[in-house]
Amino acid sequence: MRIGELSRRTGVAVHLLRYYEEQGLLHPQRRPSGYREYVEEDVAIVRRIRSLLAAGLGTSTITTVLPCLRDTGDRLVPTCSDLLADLHQERDRIARVISDLQTSMDALNDVIAAAPADVTRRALASFDTRSHSEVEAGTF
């Protein structure tokens, strides 16, 4: 199948499929005309790539872990023993990022909560689609 068909079947834009190829994630054959030729397995590979991207992994990490994953239809299953250590490291990295973001949000909420009442009223007037309690709670 050509790249347009792979794009339609996976819902992934053509430019992203080309990027995946540049990153070594996809390996289409080339026709004499230069067109890329994909096989049925590439549909499953693209789905695995998308799942791993959604899990927060970067393409360089995906390049190393992709060969060690099997898709059971409802989940990805590691098939290489050394892969789990890499996945644990990635999970720990994501947990640190989440913690840092939570700290940033808490600091921003503190600043918002310290606003004088008149500033809060003006903010409410400018954010008329949001409720007063959201502004006071610092969740807008």
**CA(first)-CA(last) distance:** 47 Å
Largest sheet: 2 strands, antiparallel
What's the total number of strands?
4
Mean pLDDT: 88
> How many helices does DSSP assign?
7
Low-confidence stretches: none
Determine the structural class based on helices, strands and strand pairing: mainly alpha
Strands of the widest sheet, in order across it, are: 1-2
**What is the percent of helical residues?**
55-70%
Strand content: 5-15%
Secondary-structure element pattern, one letter each: HHEEHHEEHHH
Which value, in Å, is the CA radius of gyration? Answer: 23 Å
Coarse shape: elongated
Write a short abstract of this structure.
With 140 residues, the chain is mainly α. It has helices spanning 3-10, 14-22, 40-54, 59-65, 83-113, 117-126, 132-137; strands at 29-30, 36-37, 69-71, 76-78. Strands 1-2 form a two-stranded antiparallel sheet. A two-stranded antiparallel ribbon has the order 3-4.
Can you characterise this structure?
By secondary structure, this protein is mainly alpha-helical. It has helices at residues 3-10, 14-22, 40-54, 59-65, 83-113, 117-126, 132-137, and strands spanning 29-30, 36-37, 69-71, 76-78. A hairpin with a 5-residue loop joins β1 and β2. It is elongated.
What's the SSE blueprint?
Elements: H1 3-10, H2 14-22, E1 29-30, E2 36-37, H3 40-54, H4 59-65, E3 69-71, E4 76-78, H5 83-113, H6 117-126, H7 132-137
Antiparallel strand pairs: 1-2, 3-4
Features:
140 residues; mainly alpha; 7% strand
